[in-house]
């Protein structure tokens, strides 16, 4: 089991290396973003432990570039940043797990073993419905050759609709996945954002990608 640690705190990195070697891992360690990107791209690792706050190139950028290259090695983000938006950003960019410092070494090992059991199944580089294409790694959307610029929330909504293509989704389902499982605001915000999306992905092209399902919610169709 070969593992890469990308961590600029050298003492912590060495502590992790020793502990993981004792647990049976083969461990490589680098201390900067560019070195982490090169190592993860050029070598075959079973998993990567990636800090966010790195010199020269952030962990977010390393993660984004790896996923853009269709490198699906499982990545656990290990960081002192513990805000929920930081965690959401990591998962949006393609992270497989997230652990905040300070952390339990026992929990870290358990999570790494869980990632290893799941492995790195091939993930679609692009989600599509007809000529509408969304690239989760590059965070881009195109209709044919034309680039469509979406806000973060619009992108999240379209991503969810594409992943559940053909299914009738209630407003509550959409709120729980795109907003927050504990969102307590007006559910009509979904209707507002569906309207925003339709004006960007359908109206200029004469298409009707998002259907209203009466009494239920919405469905994305080809």
Describe this structure as you would to a colleague.
It contains eight helices and twelve strands. By secondary structure, the protein is of the alpha/beta class. The strands form three sheets. Strands 2-1-3-4-5 form a five-stranded parallel sheet, with helices on both faces. The chain has a four-stranded antiparallel sheet with strand order 6-7-8-9, covered by helices on one side. A three-stranded antiparallel sheet has the order 10-12-11. It has helices spanning 10-22, 33-42, 59-68, 84-93, 105-118, 152-163, 171-179, 189-201, and strands at residues 2-6, 26-30, 47-51, 75-79, 97-100, 127-129, 132-135, 140-143, 146-148, 169-170, 210-213, 217-220.
Brief write-up:
This protein has 222 residues and is an alpha/beta fold.
Secondary-structure map with pairings?
Elements: E1 2-6, H1 10-22, E2 26-30, H2 33-42, E3 47-51, H3 59-68, E4 75-79, H4 84-93, E5 97-100, H5 105-118, E6 127-129, E7 132-135, E8 140-143, E9 146-148, H6 152-163, E10 169-170, H7 171-179, H8 189-201, E11 210-213, E12 217-220
Parallel strand pairs: 1-2, 1-3, 3-4, 4-5
Antiparallel strand pairs: 6-7, 7-8, 8-9, 10-12, 11-12
List keywords for this structure.
222 residues; alpha/beta; Rossmann fold; 12 strands; 41% helix; elongated
């Amino acid at each position: 089991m070969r593992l890469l640690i990308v961590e600029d705190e050298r003492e912590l990195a060495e502590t992790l290396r020793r502990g993981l070697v004792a647990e049976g891992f083969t461990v490589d360690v680098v201390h900067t973003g560019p070195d982490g990107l090169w190592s993860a791209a050029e070598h075959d690792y079973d998993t990567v432990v990636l800090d966010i706050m790195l010199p020269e190139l952030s962990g977010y950028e390393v993660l984004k570039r790896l996923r853009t290259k269709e490198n699906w090695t499982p990545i656990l983000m290990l960081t002192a940043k513990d805000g929920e938006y930081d965690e959401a950003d990591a998962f949006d960019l393609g992270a497989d797990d997230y652990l905040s410092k300070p952390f339990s070494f026992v929990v870290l090992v358990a999570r790494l073993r869980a990632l290893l059991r799941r492995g790195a199944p091939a993930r679609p580089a692009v989600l599509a419905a007809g000529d509408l294409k969304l690239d989760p790694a590059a965070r881009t959307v195109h209709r044919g050759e034309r680039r469509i610029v979406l806000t973060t929330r619009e992108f999240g909504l379209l991503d969810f609709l594409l992943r559940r293509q053909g299914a009738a989704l209630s407003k509550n389902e959409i709120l729980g996945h795109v907003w927050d499982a504990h969102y307590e605001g007006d559910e009509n915000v979904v209707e507002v954002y569906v309207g925003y999306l339709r004006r960007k992905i359908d109206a200029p092209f004469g298409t009707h990608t998002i259907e209203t399902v009466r009494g239920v919610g919405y469905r994305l169709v080809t």
